[in-house]
Design a protein that fits this description.
The complex is a heterodimer. Chain A is largely without helices or strands. In chain A, 14% of the residues lie in helices and 0% in strands. Chain B contains five helices and five strands. The C terminus of chain B is likely disordered. Classes of the chains: A little secondary structure, B alpha+beta. Chains A and B meet through helix 1 of A and helix 2 and helix 3 of B.
Chain lengths: 73, 172
């Protein structure tokens, strides 16, 4: 209850006035990060009966392929 | 190209047409000036160039070759704040903090020109700076507090991290 009526400093105030607060555009991602691209179905309302990622995995520059099988259960 | 940024001489590899804002944020990792409107309207990109507040988003590097640039990083650090930084913190002049660096630097330049501005003069000096959070009153209160000489523990008027003071002005 001591907080009620008390004059409390903002937890982020010092960062804001000294320029140390980090906003999203201030974040520098490390060089060499991987890029992800989603492969979308070219067929609407279709049912996927099977898929084969071996060809895609063999392409140069492909580090990995993520499918529904990688989703933790 | 070279700049003195917060008192430190820097040799730059950025091309002369790159904006000072991009040079500071990308080449030098000085991220307190923000890319807001990127068109000179919002004030978040404001830095002091030879003591004057400038829109760094509209300044090509080639036009400020050799200049002294001051950002809020050069005014003080959490353990040793400039008095304006302390006032903004104490009077809740910063909420999200995005406008804060520009507001503080414009206030520094104002108080360098006129140590005792009226509230109206403070408003005029900050007219180029937009704030979506505070409603401006607390920001003006903070500047007014410094203008009337209020002191804050651990803060002073020095630019403790190399932010340059306004050079002597030639008489008008």
């Amino acid at each position: 209850m001591k907080a009620i009526g008390a004059r409390l400093p903002r937890y982020d105030g010092l960062g804001h006035v000294t320029g140390q607060s980090v906003f999203v555009d201030d974040v520098r991602l490390p060089q060499g990060n991987l890029w992800a691209k989603a492969l979308r179905s070219p067929h609407d309302s279709a049912r996927i009966t099977s898929f084969d990622t071996t060809g895609a995995a063999a392409l140069p520059g492909v580090s990995g392929i993520v499918t529904h099988e990688d989703v933790p259960r | 190209m070279r700049l003195a940024v917060n008192g430190v001489e820097r040799e730059l590899t950025s091309p002369p047409l790159m904006s000072l804002l991009s040079v500071l944020r990308e080449e030098l990792d000085v991220t307190s000036p923000k890319a807001g409107c990127q068109g000179g309207s919002c004030g978040t990109c404001t830095v002091l160039v030879d003591g004057e507040p400038r829109h760094s988003c509209l300044l090509p590097l080639g036009m400020v070759d050799g200049a002294q640039v001051t950002t809020v990083e050069g005014l003080g650090s959490p353990k040793h704040l400039h008095v304006l930084q302390a006032a903004f913190h104490y009077y809740y002049g910063a909420q999200c903090g995005f406008c804060t660096p520009g507001m503080i630097l414009a206030s520094v330049a104002l108080l360098d020109r006129d140590p005792s501005p009226s509230r109206r003069q403070i408003q005029n000096a900050l007219a180029g700076h937009m704030c979506r959070c505070t409603g401006y009153m607390k920001i003006i209160d903070a500047v007014e507090a410094v203008a009337r000489g209020e002191s804050f523990e651990g803060a002073d008027r020095t630019r403790s991290r190399g932010g340059e003071a306004t050079p002597e002005r030639a008489p008008a």
